[in-house]
## 1
Amino acid sequence: MFPDSPRLWQRRQFLQLSGLSSIGLLLGGCGLVQSDIIGKTFEPFNQSVEALLLNPQKLVPEFPASAIEPNALIINTFDSTPNIDPKAFRLIIDGEVNRPLNLSLEQLQIMPLSVMTIRHVCVEGWAAIVQWGGVRLRDLVALAKPKANARYVYFKSADGYYESWDMPSALHPQTLMVYQKNGNPLSVENGAPLRLASPIKLGYKQSKWVTRITLVPELLPEKGYWEDQGYEWFGGL
Ligand SMILES: Nc1nc2c(c(=O)[nH]1)N[C@H]1C(S)=C(S)[C@@H](COP(=O)(O)O)O[C@H]1N2
Ligand SMILES: [Mo]
């Protein structure tokens, strides 16, 4: 359905990126609804990626902006802070997708901005109400046209951190790839240019400096930086 010519492909991609909305993604005429991602078996406990994209899950209540605790978010980085040139930055989305993506920060920033004020909870015993702004991960996954067998999502970070998430959590409407914190551009220490943020997962699931998102059918022996040292994998809140 998508022409092989890189130029045509880029044009299609740009049109889709610039006109993107969750509803438009699935129902709009941009050629995004593909017969190959519709009509696969519905698994109740382990819902298919297409069912999850069509049925957004229940929203977690958010806080008003007045509840933001500007100094409560403690920088928590296991090693050193990577310095990524935002101009050279690319987010790769690959694995079990029909259309692997390689997106610049600019392309991410022309997609619809979602802003949410939520509580960040670290297992080390602190929490902070933070406002995050960025792109819904579900929109990015939909854009990459996931294959029916995609069940988990791996996040690779520039500091060597890695994480894996279950598909329902990754496609939750409040799971965002963010580039703003408390109304400002994300700082390098907090994960710039792009990090994960979600009110449904503990802090260690929320990878900073994400450069690659890979959809996979099964979990690998490596499940996450902290998980591989004994932390619980699901990390739900
Ligand atoms: N790449 C990367 N992401 C990471 C971490 C890390 O060390 N490296 N630490 C995690 C932990 S334990 C927490 S609590 C949050 C902290 O985010 P902050 O440093 O922006 O407060 O980032 C998470 N994401
Ligand atoms: Mo944490």
## 2
Amino acid sequence: MISYIYITILLIATISASTHLLPFSKCPKEDFLRKCLDYYIKGSVNFRDDLFAYNVDLNIEYNKLIIHFPVAFVHPVDILDIQNTIKCGAEFNFPIVARSGGHSSECYSIGDKDCYLVVDLVNLNKITVDVTSQIAIVGTGNTLDSLYYKVNLYGFAFPGGVCPYVGVGGLILGGGMGHLSREFGCSSDNILDAQIVLANGTVVNNAKEYPELLWAIRGAGNAGYGIVTALTLRIHPIQKVATYFYLTYDLDQTPLIISIMNQMGNNLHQNLSFIMRILTSGSQPYIYGIYLGSADELQSHIHEFINLSKPKNVSYIEGDLYELFNIEGISPEDGETFKLKSFFIDSTGLSEEGVKCLMKFRENFKCELGFEIALLGGRINDIKRNETAFVHRGFMYHMIITSIMPSEKCLQDLENFSQYFQLKYTNYESYQNIIDRQLDNWQYRYYGESFEKLVEIKRKYDPYNLFRWNQSIPTHI
Ligand SMILES: Cc1cc2nc3c(=O)[nH]c(=O)nc-3n(C[C@H](O)[C@H](O)[C@H](O)COP(=O)(O)OP(=O)(O)OC[C@H]3O[C@@H](n4cnc5c(N)ncnc54)[C@H](O)[C@@H]3O)c2cc1C
Ligand SMILES: *[C@@H]1O[C@H](CO)[C@@H](O)[C@H](O)[C@H]1NC(C)=O
Ligand SMILES: *[C@@H]1O[C@H](CO)[C@@H](O)[C@H](O)[C@H]1NC(C)=O
Ligand SMILES: *[C@@H]1O[C@H](CO)[C@@H](O)[C@H](O)[C@H]1NC(C)=O
Ligand SMILES: *[C@@H]1O[C@H](CO)[C@@H](O)[C@H](O)[C@H]1NC(C)=O
Ligand SMILES: *[C@@H]1O[C@H](CO)[C@@H](O)[C@H](O)[C@H]1NC(C)=O
Ligand SMILES: *[C@@H]1O[C@H](CO)[C@@H](O)[C@H](O)[C@H]1NC(C)=O
Ligand SMILES: *[C@@H]1O[C@H](CO)[C@@H](O)[C@H](O)[C@H]1NC(C)=O
């Protein structure tokens, strides 16, 4: 109820503050679209005049920086519903976008302007596990949490992201990095096959029979090639006991711990995640991670780091991997807006000057600011840049800067800082899943030298650019 009231207020506030189409007025050809959908679609369809249901749908967007209003949310119950949604949408010129978990940081799962037709995949929530062949077939309407839970029942794990409430569709198709990626690679490296509904309505049941399409969706599958309805994933058998560790520090130790991470990061054990965070403006740094094995074994891998970096407190929790994943399960704070910036850092690490620059910016920033530096390496870097559409290989860290509830001024300051910081201290590339509308030359920052090939493949599978938004792969360079 609270969120319903919230979003209603948000709607009204947005209307009065902008020239966007009124949410209760109609999109061009909306009546035709409605007739078509009413006739063909078995699942529920919420237009703007279904105020309550429409608001619930809109509110699924995790970032509350909602600035536009879809014509309707369709909840297909099967593949035929998706094919028919595409037919109706295309016939009446509505751009179409898929939504899995709604965690796009720019709300691209409701498009980039008013009047998108949103295909919400929530009903495609089947998961089947084949223990013998070590695969899972996963509907893209699932959250990571359901996937982790299901494979864990059989003694398996899948390398996804750290936050269990993110959608399988958006995260896995655009890379996917988390606690197990040093050991098993990115999520997209573990896509073996997929079922996709193309722009012309054709269903590709086995993307592996279309090698270039499969190549493209392993890293750019959430960038406009079609609606991916199911993924066949490689899952990995794991030992029974895993260990979560948590090291706390004082703020003035930050330069020291980053310099020790730089020194030791390339040699830390591969079955270990290692993430350093300062979450908010007032908080202290900590390092946490998960190791696949016992606390005793883990200690033997990180004691040197602990000796050198001198944490204030060290704690270990041994347990079942699924339970450990949920320790970090921060659930969304209702009503928050946020802005994320992504940086990759080369194998020498973040320089002392870079750390100084970051800490100084943090001190002077007028809004809430947090950052995290996650150790990459291991299996992620064993794979060649051109083997999939996820090119970001050979880096030591991925770093995210987060501003919560940023003002306009803070957004500008963050943008100015990020450009300078990226130019001076980090690699040119940025992570496509931390999608960022302000990013210049995003085509090459996200996809590197693979961008041209991605455009060619897009032209083949979606020649009329039915699946399009500001940062989808275009049909022409
Ligand atoms: C709180 C939070 C934590 C995060 N943690 C991590 C992390 O640990 N590791 C990591 O790698 N990333 C992380 N991310 C980034 C995350 O990978 C992206 O936001 C991802 O796009 C979210 O997927 P989704 O399905 O929830 O999003 P959605 O908003 O539903 O989709 C994102 C994009 O993918 C497209 N899309 C979604 N499903 C499909 C589909 N089935 N077929 C075709 N296109 C589709 C949508 O159209 C949209 O453009 C995090 C983001 C947030 C907000
Ligand atoms: C998309 O791009 C257009 C034109 O560049 C811009 O006006 C609009 O604000 C952008 N929308 C989003 C959501 O980034
Ligand atoms: C890492 O964990 C996997 C799966 O539990 C195990 O098979 C492998 O031997 C471990 N690797 C190392 C180097 O210990
Ligand atoms: C860590 O420090 C302790 C005591 O200070 C010492 O006994 C131990 O040998 C050190 N271990 C390493 C790996 O440096
Ligand atoms: C250190 O961690 C343990 C748990 O491992 C906890 O019980 C204790 O309170 C912590 N101490 C401090 C000073 O935070
Ligand atoms: C990747 O590049 C190498 C040459 O550098 C080439 O031989 C190989 O075929 C390419 N692989 C793909 C999948 O494009
Ligand atoms: C932009 O960032 C640079 C580097 O942090 C800083 O020197 C400069 O003053 C900033 N400019 C503005 C307008 O904030
Ligand atoms: C749809 O597009 C795909 C990919 O280009 C093609 O293989 C298929 O034949 C097309 N289907 C129809 C009905 O045109």
## 3
Amino acid sequence: MAAPPTTRAANEGGGGAWKEEGGGAGARRLATAALFLAAVALPCLVLYRAVAPAGVLVQPAALMPWATQQQTAGAPPHDGLFVDDLQESDSEDVRLERVLRSAAMADDTVILTTLNSAWSAPGSVVDVFLESFRIGDNTRHLLDHLVIVSLDNAAHRRCKQIHAHCLAVATDGVDFSGQKNFMTDGYLKMMWRRIDFLRQVLEKGFSFIFTDTDIVWFRSPIPRLYAEGDFQIACDHFTGDPDDLQNSPNGGFAYVRANTETVEFYRFWYAARERHPGMHDQDVLNIIKGDPYVAQIGLRIRFLSTEFFGGLCEPSRNLSAVCTMHANCCVGLRRKVDDLSLMLQDWRRFMATRNQDRLFVSWSVPRNCSLNKVEE
Ligand SMILES: *[C@@H]1O[C@H](CO)[C@@H](O)[C@H](O)[C@H]1NC(C)=O
Ligand SMILES: *[C@@H]1O[C@H](CO)[C@@H](O)[C@H](O)[C@H]1NC(C)=O
């Protein structure tokens, strides 16, 4: 089972530039949850989520960082979107191509994540994310293939301080750097911008591993990807069958191979937002995953096991096998950072333990993370 990206021998740094709303999949889910909570019977739903964290209707989530966090102290004042990049004469398209090229593996696969200002602050999510690659089992070299996409200026500046491949992506008429409320027009635009962006990447011929930034990487996922399957996505809950459409996909981690099928699928997915106004990409994905048109395109969707691609909803039980762990099923940025940091500690403990004793190392998470609302 190998989707065989190999590491390029040499790698030059890249200049710059796409961003993510803070919580990626998480934020999307919370927004959905919030709407539900507001609209539907609160107590039942809260109870439901507490007992069924991988629920289908309401998936757990992260708070929208910009809705709750102050701009970091020390962050540059916001002075307009992508000042640095606007001064470059290159078009966004040319910049995109250049950054992807400089980060790509030999088989034209890139690793992509998206970032916003709250998550980019020193000591916040992005630092834990990058640290995991450094302490993981032979994962450091994967940083050479990681492109951090910023949708706001502060995130882009921080990226350029700490990483070689940074890309800023703007959305016409929307300033993503400020505070955003759930389910506002700007918020949804930003979520969908990511889908449109990923389609662009595929059209350029680059396959990608998309990862939310609140996922720590301990081993290369590449050997655990299926040899078959153009669109492979992680799950909040894995049924045990990679082909079972009843799996609950989590858009925070996916491997997508560049081909005509996946380009058409991303087009279809993006276009489907118009038929489902007010919904997030992940909710729409859940609706269209069984659409006859997807089968007609010839797209094979496969679901990744939580054994290798775990999360707080359903942790991998085997530290000898785990590749990634996602801080899903977690509301609140600070709690998220706390539990992600604990995962790094657990991993260090695992790596420092020898032989058979390793079998007894287990996660100390979730600890702070939960689905309960926080008063941040
Ligand atoms: C844990 O993963 C390792 C490496 O893949 C494997 O050899 C071992 O059998 C697994 N243990 C369990 C209990 O599944
Ligand atoms: C996380 O849990 C620890 C121990 O229970 C506690 O000391 C800490 O304040 C918690 N952090 C947050 C953000 O709730």
